[in-house]
Write a structure and sequence with these properties.
The protein is mainly alpha-helical. The chain has one domain (10-105): Alpha Horseshoe (Serine Threonine Protein Phosphatase 5, Tetratricopeptide repeat), CATH 1.25.40.20. The chain is 51% helix and 0% strand. It has helices spanning 10-21, 25-33, 48-55, 58-66, 81-88, 91-105. The longest helix is centred in the C-terminal third of the chain and has 15 residues, at 91-105.
């Protein structure tokens, strides 16, 4: 397993991922307020922020970032939310993540995701 991939509480994270994929921002907010891990991931290392990037949902991506989502996390293929949004052509999510990263880079140095190992 890629060392970038970390899992959260399975069922709670699954509920959060489904809410993100469905674009249900009120449910996403409720789950986050209930303490579901904003950086939890599925078996492939997909986090809620990555799911919002896949769907181009800038409102949910912003909510996730505001509640502590780590944009530097990568899935088992070595892709971050930024790379996923760029791949799918969601320029508004790319811009949000660029702005967020610029603010963070001024205070910390983020390490890039290692390339995923092909099996």
């Amino acid at each position: 397993m890629n060392e970038c991939v970390q899992k959260g509480d399975g069922e709670a994270v699954k509920s959060l991922l489904l809410a993100v994929h469905g674009g249900r921002d009120a449910e996403v907010r409720r789950l986050l307020e209930a303490g579901v891990d904003v950086n939890g991931a599925d078996a492939d290392g997909v986090t809620p922020l990555m799911a919002s990037a896949m769907n181009g949902n800038v409102k949910i991506a912003s909510l996730l970032l505001d509640t502590g989502a780590d944009p530097g996390r990568c899935n088992k293929w070595g892709m971050t939310a930024h790379a996923i949004a760029r791949f799918h052509g969601y320029d508004t999510v790319v811009a949000l993540l660029d702005d967020w990263s610029a603010a963070v880079e001024s205070s910390t140095e983020a390490a890039p995701c290692p390339r995923a190992q092909r099996t």
